[in-house]
Amino acid sequence: MKNSYIGQAWLVIVLSLCFGVALAAVQTALNPKIESNKLRDTIGQIPSLVPGAADGKAETIGGQTVYRAVDAQGQHVGWVIPARGQGFADVIELLVGTDKDVKQITGLYVLKQLETPGLGDFITGDAWRSQFKSKPADVPLVITKTAPKTDSEVQGITGATISSRSVVGIVNGAVEKFRSAVANE
Amino acid sequence: MSNDGPTPLERFINGILPENPVYRQILGICPTLAVSNTMEGALTMAGAVAFVLICSNILVSLIRGLLKPHLRILVFTLTIAAFVTIADRFLAAYMYDMSKLLGPYIPLIIVNCIIIARCEICASKQRLGAAVMDAVGQSLGFMLGLMSIASVREILGFGTWFGKWLGWRVIPAAAPEIWSNWVIMILPPGAFITLGLLMGVMNWIEARSRKARKAVAA
Fold it and tell me: In Å, how far from its chain's centre is CA B173?
């Protein structure tokens, strides 16, 4: 018995079971709170993403969760689309605000990013994100190295070409997918 | 189980300065470098490490008679991982902003050498009292290390101290014409520069006091 596998490893097995149960209990107890924190983080951004919006409600359109932005009177004023895609270092998670006909982009917010500090993480800055306000939603946006000349151009960040392109790519993809989903509704 | 080795009080005092995890043992350098650009981040990290270290030391000390020598590291890792996951979930539920700020560095406490070193050096060999005092002393030492680095980095990099929680400004906001924040202090190089300089100061003090002791003895 003393030299059998069980004799050697019983402590590890018992501890694994105890810890497993304890972690399951912690997860069950805290998960609703964590999920509501995440949701609050998203809903809290809606007024800054869609002009005039005061609140938002989650909805499922075309198989993805989006937020219907409503003003103080409950009138539908726009949409907020969660989007994600590969950045330079890791996955970037964005929120894209559009007007209610998905004709125009009204705002952009970065929920999660791990881009290079000091270069790529400028994508979270107001100065860069505000370029996306009032961009058309029906033509794909492109990154330029100089000041934008046409409506659909966005000036990239010096030294962070890949991060800039990633964000624009994610925005284009998400808006395009959502437009066709709304059209099919 | 022998109970030789330092007393609980010695363990406690050693952790704070003589065997400071950051400056003397140079353990747990990953969080020390990564999350020391604000005081809030540094304190949250130090708190999470303290929780994991104290809980793991208690548990390991209690089961030390049952440990098999060749399976002990496995047991330590298992214990630490369980407490780290609890700390991570807890932060995500009750301190969501901090949890977002610290990102992957909370789960990375699992591989923080301070904790596994204390399990190996102290908790698996000594009684509960010594293990608890050791964990508290080492946690305080780690907190001091992180806070000293974070103070320098946050003041020079942002001009604030506890800026997010208390909003204290050390360098007035009106000063941009004569003082601009050192962005390098917020970035990773600032962590290396600060840690190197502070460690140099610690070694200098240590060398001086050793010389003074020698002079007294002679």
Answer: 31
Q: Per-residue pLDDT tens for B18-77? A: 889 989 888 988 889 988 888 999 999 999 999 999 999 999 999 998 888 888 999 999
Residue pair A81/A70 in contact by the 8 Å Cβ criterion: no
End-to-end CA distance of chain B: 40
Q: Is the CB of A21 inside 8 Å of chain B's CB atoms?
A: no
* pTM listed for this prediction: 0.79
Is B181:B159 a contact under the CB 8 Å cutoff? yes
B81 neighbourhood in chain A, CB within 8 Å: 19
* pLDDT tens-place string over residues A48-88: 888 888 888 888 887 888 888 888 888 888 889 999 999 98
Instruction: Give the residue extent of every domain in chain A.
Output: 48-184
Q: Whole-angstrom Cα distance, residue B70 to residue A13?
A: 15
Assign residue B141 a region (left: φ > 0; alpha: ψ between -120 and 50; beta: otherwise).
alpha
Helix axes B128-158, B8-16, angle to 10 degrees: 10
**Both structure tokens of A95:** 């929120």
| ipTM associated with this complex | 0.78
Residue A5, number of CB atoms within 10 A of its CB = 8
Give the nearest partner residue to A12 out of B75, B85, B94, using CB atoms. B75
- Is B63 within 8 Å of A27 when comparing Cβ atoms? no
A89 chain-B contacts, CB cut-off 8 A: none
- State both tokens at B88: 């991570």
